[in-house]
Specification:
9 strands, alpha/beta, globular, Rossmann fold, two-stranded antiparallel ribbon, 9 helices, 267 residues
């Protein structure tokens, strides 16, 4: 099968027309005494009034999530060329070797959040059929040019990829840009596109909470046990789970606590 044919069957849809899709999050549930105008008080109102109030209450949270996602995407769109140059020569060989040694020869692998295509090209150079995905169109175009691999524009929470198509998924420092309320959905999507016994590599920043950095990019932080539970809840059994401190980041690397994991999709 030639590359073009495999390119078409790797996902459901035209990669040139694929777009990212937003995800609207429900407001966090809490146990608070009823207040005037609250949903509890609204139970005594007419159905039309109740639906109006609950919708009004959701708007601020939805707007905040959309803005958060837009700021992160916009950073990579505006700074695509600079980011590509700053990260292109960073070596991921040790992690890639550990991951790819567990894959079958000629495996089909998707690089989720492929950026400028550095790891995508490495996967292809190792003899795998590699497909890239990124939410930022300018980075996706750079990755396609530099790696000579198919690249689709898409959202990690709504992957425009066909089910059970990939032997492996590589998610290096990409899932960490999702809000904590979205990580379960993203992991479920990855589980969906992996073949039975398929592998996921993921690297996440270690810590607690979530926040934007000084450049507007959103980051979510996890503990090792918390990350293990999230993987298992999505149907992904961890076979490697490590924490370390590494000097990473652009333009000036700083010591950062990381979690690296390899997990296998349940058969």
């Amino acid at each position: 099968m030639n590359t073009r044919t495999r390119h078409v069957t790797a996902w459901g849809g035209n990669p040139a027309r694929s777009k990212s899709h937003g995800s609207l999050s429900e407001p966090p549930s809490g146990h608070h005494p009823p207040r005037r105008g609250s949903p509890a008080e609204a139970n005594d109102m007419q159905p039309s009034e109740t639906s109006f109030i609950s919708k009004r209450l959701r708007i601020p949270r939805q707007a905040a999530v959309r803005e958060r996602d837009a700021l992160t995407r916009r950073f990579y769109e505006i700074n695509a060329t600079t980011y590509a140059e700053a990260t292109w020569r960073l070596s991921m060989d040790e992690l890639l070797s550990n991951f790819t040694a567990r894959l079958p020869s000629g495996a089909t692998v998707v690089d989720l959040g492929c950026g400028a295509g550095r790891d995508l090209k490495s996967l292809a150079d190792r003899g795998f059929f590699a497909v890239g995905l990124d939410v930022a169109a300018p980075l996706a175009h750079i990755a396609r040019h530099r790696s000579d691999c198919p690249v689709v524009i898409g959202d990690l929470r709504h992957l425009p990829l066909a089910s059970e198509r990939f032997d492996g998924a590589w998610a290096s420092a990409s899932l960490l840009h999702l809000g904590r309320e979205d990580i379960g959905q993203a992991l479920a999507e990855i589980c969906r596109i992996l073949k039975p016994d398929g592998l996921l590599f993921a690297s996440m920043k270690a810590g607690r909470g979530e926040r934007a950095d000084e450049r507007g990019r959103w980051f979510s932080y996890y503990g090792v046990d918390e990350w293990r539970s999230l993987l298992e809840d999505a149907g992904l059994a961890p076979i490697l789970l490590e924490s370390s401190v590494q000097s990473t980041g652009t333009p000036a690397p700083v010591p950062t606590a990381w979690i690296t994991s390899i997990a296998r999709r349940d058969s």
